[in-house]
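Weekend entry, working from home. Most of the wet-lab plans are on hold until the incubator is repaired, so I used the time to fold the two sequences that have been sitting in the queue since the last round of cloning. Logging both here for the record. First:
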Amino acid sequence: TPSTTYAYTVTAFDAAGNESAQSGAVIQTTKAATSSGEHIYISQLGSGGQDGSSCDNAYPVSWFNTSANWANPKQPGKIGPGDTAHLCGTIITQLTIQASGNSGSPITILFELNSKLSGSYWINGAINASNAGYLIVDGGTNGIIEATANGTTLSNQQQSSGVVFTNCNYCEVKNLAVNGMYQRIPGSGDAHGYGNGIRFSGGNNNLIHHNVIIESNNGISYTAPGSGLTTNIKIYNNTVSRVSNGIIFGSGNTNAIGDNIEIYNNDLSDGFVWDGIFDNCTGDCWFHNDGIQTWAVHAGSKITNLKIYNNYVHGDWGAHITAWIFTEGWISDHYIYNNLLTVSGSASSPTNGFIYVKGYSSDATSGANAKIYHNTIVSQDRGTGIGLGNAKNIDIKNNIIYKASTGIYAPMGSSITGSNNNIFYGLGNNQMYYQAGFYTFSNWRSVLGFDLNSSTGDPLFISGPDSNFSLQSLSPAVDTGANVAITTDKNGVSRPQGPAWDIGAYEYAPGAPVCGNNI
């Protein structure tokens, strides 16, 4: 059994307060790592003896892409359940996974230190798998997938993707840096909506996490195909920037069902790169920028048990921005909570609201029963905090909306069952809107009966570059929230810390670190 000896020196005090140093050692034993799987090494052209035993003796990519070298059930010398395929050096050829792992014995594709897949562009993914399962793509310490010559002023304009999984079950993509799938020049008039950092279509029980994605039309794209169920999907702890859409999940055709979808702890910024040109522009002006967008818009499609929480959406998303968080169509009973949504400097605020829930006027179930709780929304004296479009029976509680022109905008076709225990600070002239007209905050309360336990006081955010709009001890948000059964805040601090829940994304906790998007 392996063991390691650690020496230590500590400072001690006797009863009289005299200081002394005490030294010693501790022996830590660890169980030797065991694995029933093989470790098989791959490089572009192969190396050394080409027996796959190490990076110095790696098989070539052509061996990896040959189906005869994969086997399920597992066969010695072939990639199968429980095995790890190690990627070595720079690889310039698409990798196509040829077999599935098994429950408890997945197949892992692992980037070795300083390894990458590098090409001008990647049609259908630098790493691709279809109709497979129990797969892990792991970027390891610093694994990279990059497109080096695909973009507005570059040699190619192609639909390029980093990882593409189709109908993959129990699959995981983690720890990757995906760079430059399409490098668009802002304001260029380039109408190509190209590039996906990570793209999934269909499949169940999948994880996408701890990836960094830069320069692509879509950061993470997940489509639920028609006439099927896509369930148990978690997209979390990813950092995505310079994209038109940070994370999207939506129906791809009729009768597409998405269930138990969680999007959380992601850091999303700077969609301005993908702004359309507004001169002589009609319709969508090519691009539809959103931090997080989910939709069920095809006939017979729906998304149930959707949760969007603990995300940080910020920066400059350009003039053609719909929402920081946008849900659309036949989505009901979903939760949007603990999100920090901010805009930087003079950047545009979203057209429809930092949070925008959209249903259909002819349907009672679309955009219905959303719970919007504990979000902190920081505008710059403009824009709408929470916007509704034909969304029904919406519950809005424990949110901070800071310096928005309009706190809540709910036009005809929309309805609010409850709005209370919120803070609306620094609202503009068009303070609140319901059904057919604007209301002052006072009339919003006295005429409509909303937000009777809410206030317009300064939430007293902690100042400083690392505060992330957490609360001071004397904030009116402390201990004035409602119990909406959200038991942790954005940083994982338990709610409540005092006699009642705090308002906003962060719970005030004396002694807790003032920081953090917990990414």
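Second, folded right after the first finished:
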Amino acid sequence: MGSEMCIRDRRKTELGMMRAVGLRRSHLLRTFGLEGAIYSVVAAAIGALLGVGVGWVLIKATEYIFNGDEALTFQLAVEPTALIGGAVYGALLGVITVWLTSIRISRLNVISAIRDLPDPRTHGRRLGRVALGILGVVAGGLLTVAGLSGESSALTLLGPGVVLFSSLALTLRFLPARPTLILTGLAVIIWGVAAFTVAPDAMEDASEQTFLIQGVLMVGAAVVILVQVDHLWVGLARRLADRGGGLSSRLALAYPLARRVRTGLLLAMFAMVLFVMTFLSVFDGIMRSQAEDFAEQQRAGFDLYVDSNPANPVTSERLSEQPEVTAVAALTHGFADMQAPWDEEPGWWAITGFDESLLTFGGPDLAARDDGYATDTEVYRAVLDDPSLALVDDFFREEDGGPSSVSMDVGDQFTVVSPTGGERTMTVAGILSQDWIYNGTFMSREVVDEIMGPLAVENRHYVSLTAGADPSEVATLLDGRMLENGISASSFRDEIDRELAENSGFFNLMRGYLGIGLVIGIAGLGVVMVRAVRERRREIGMLRAMGVRAPTVRRAFMIEAGFLAVQGIVIGIGLGAISAYQVLVNSTTFGEQTLDFAVPWTALAVIGLIPLVVSLLAAARPANRAAAIRPAVALRIAD
């Protein structure tokens, strides 16, 4: 769509003359269709080859993130069918888009094109827009009803947005355009934020896809609003010019504000990429800022956890003999088949048996517990006394490690299948706050011994250290002293830091991948600026002939690029932070965990500053070319 606008603006008079001298509409359609198809095919082939290179970079980055010592190696595997299929799909999508836009280009009005005037609206086009508007309103209403009745958060959020945007095709015929568009955009943004309060039951299962839809709706609405408040920017530029120092600003704003559709597309492109990058950065910052709290909730008052070889496990007595150790809690850790209510068949899951020693300092924190217990410790003691009770984590039976669309609640039941045969039904007495070391399901030691049979061994210990001892240093000492037991000692904080570092590495990988899209967007801005210089040569020449200095022209183009970039940055970062807050407060993404919202100001500053600087650099060359235009030459040029 953006390319279509550029082609129409740059070659409108030429196209009108071609139609006037007898070129048929079908010929014009085929001409642009073939031209665009060639671009699409070549771009698809180049993109497929570049995709292989990007895949190799991602593999190397993944190796670095998940295994810094490079002991783990990933191999790049290129499937010819997948590569060719991707190129074909990309080329096909490009060709379809080009032919659809070529149809619109071929419908230009000859007289208006020759005179470089706006195309007059025809009755047929108005009827088409009305029909599409009615169809969109009906479809949006059906989506809303389906979302509310089926309690689907994605449909509930999307439906009213589709209704509001589609209604513009109907309301703009009777109402003033600017206030109608602004109010509609505000309504979409308000609905994106208020949907969780208005329809809490339907929005209860909000997932990452729901918030992506929220982002698209809110970014689109914000772009619509900003494009419509151009009179505010014009007024500001006029006041600056009247004070003697703002001529560059007024010149800079005139061109993008006169081409609202092109400006809106550029803003949306910038804003969507920055929205997702901000979304990821906020979550990364939230998780990293909670590291100490995570450790406190997990460690149950101890300092280290020690895993040892099940074939030759270290004993509690030997650990207690170490000079740095003051208390030890022995755990039986293993795996068993478990079946949640939503499972069709049992699946492998971690199981941990504990005794009274784990409660020396109170036990790990619980995010939820049965209402019949006043404290977390009471829940643990109830599990020790009742062989039918267990404690589970938020990710119970979630095999891919991510947040599940369904989860266990207090009072739910699940089945444990013993490796030696037999089944046992367990009831959930509480939900663990954290499980960074994969304890899995907590049960009493006696129950786990019965389930695991001869496989049950005390191969995990929680260890408390003397005051002032450094957990990381003691963990290293214990590893060296008990090599024959194959122990792996680690402080809770170090383990959580490692896990969070891997998460951050993944977020960085995704941000880098999105950065490629941002580079493309900035390159598009550079192309637009180059075309703007070409399209405005005569205007620039006239300004120069009237006495406008070259530095003023250069500043005007730089301000124009900054004007577009800053708006996209503000929309993307602002709405990305709002959506991240909505996920934290109004979704079950983090289960029963309570996390504090924190804005990573440094990361957001980098996300905003780098695109702005690169955008200005991309505009520097076109700005210099514009400033170097000689009036006498520019005024003689006939486009």
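Plan for Monday: verify the second prediction. DSSP finds 21 helices and ten strands in the chain.
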